[in-house]
Amino acid sequence: MLLLKTKQMVVEYGRKILNQGLVVGTWGNISARDGDKGVFVITPSGMNYDMLEPEDIVEVDLYGKPITTNRKPSVETPMHAAIYRARPDVKAIIHVHSINASACAAAQVEIPCIMEDMASMVGGPVKVARYAISGSEELGQNAVEALADRNAVLLANHGVVAVGRDLSEAFRTCLIVEKSAEIFLKARILGNPVPLAESEVKFLREFFLNSYGQR
């Protein structure tokens, strides 16, 4: 029952990233971890988000091996698996090709932590992972290295990956990264964007994780 609910949530967020213009067509991918069972579910390869049903979502293990064979999993399954292995705190991953963040990825320019909401959600700058071919183990390794303990990373010449404690958090992080990228690019026209100090970023991140909201 829990796994079915997780698949339903992946379908729901697939429609959200499409409706928000974070992806075009079948590009991008979404996954969510099923508790601590060593299993995650991921969107299938090359299927339209607005046509997905829960039975289309593929179950895989933490090494990217499919458990179910109903559909072929996303080509980026190795990257998702690598992040889950490296980050036990991560329960959801969303990979999108939003315009402004992708512009930074194409220029291989990191997005500095210039906004408070970015500090809260991402926990620092969005760094650029070294380029590797889509679907390769190398891409997963590069993403893990550049992601470190933060919640978003740019894939060079490709797009952005956001992670979170659940799909809602990963989705909101996608939106914050895209907004921050747009602000960064516009601020560069006016002058040099001024990043927040590391101590300020740390305070905002810890407050978000431990005190923000109805806790």
Task: Report what the structure shows.
This protein has one domain: 3-Layer(aba) Sandwich (L-fuculose-1-phosphate Aldolase), CATH 3.40.225.10. The chain is built from seven helices and seven strands, in the order H-E-E-E-H-E-H-H-E-H-E-E-H-H. The protein has helices spanning 2-19, 77-86, 99-107, 116-122, 137-147, 167-190, 198-210; strands at residues 29-33, 39-42, 58-61, 92-96, 128-129, 152-155, 159-164. Strand 1 and strand 2 (39-42) form a beta hairpin.
Query: Average pLDDT value?
Result: 95
- CATH superfamily placement: Class II aldolase/adducin N-terminal domain
Q: Which oligomeric state applies?
A: single chain
Give the helices and strands as they follow along the chain. Answer: HEEEHEHHEHEEHH
What structural class do helix, strand and pairing data support? alpha+beta
Most strands sheet: 7 strands, mixed
Number of strand segments: 7
Strand order of the largest sheet: 3-2-1-4-7-6-5
Q: What is the rounded distance between the termini?
A: 27 Å
Radius of gyration from CA coordinates: 16 Å
Number of domains: 1
CATH class reads Alpha Beta
- What would the CATH topology be? L-fuculose-1-phosphate Aldolase
Helical content, roughly?
40-55%
Low-confidence parts: none
Give the percentage of residues in beta strands. Answer: 5-15%
Shape: globular
Note the main attributes of this structure.
alpha+beta; 215 residues; L-fuculose-1-phosphate Aldolase; 7-stranded mixed sheet
List the helices and strands and how they pair.
Blueprint: H1 2-19, E1 29-33, E2 39-42, E3 58-61, H2 77-86, E4 92-96, H3 99-107, H4 116-122, E5 128-129, H5 137-147, E6 152-155, E7 159-164, H6 167-190, H7 198-210
Parallel strand pairs: 5-6
Antiparallel strand pairs: 1-2, 1-4, 2-3, 4-7, 6-7
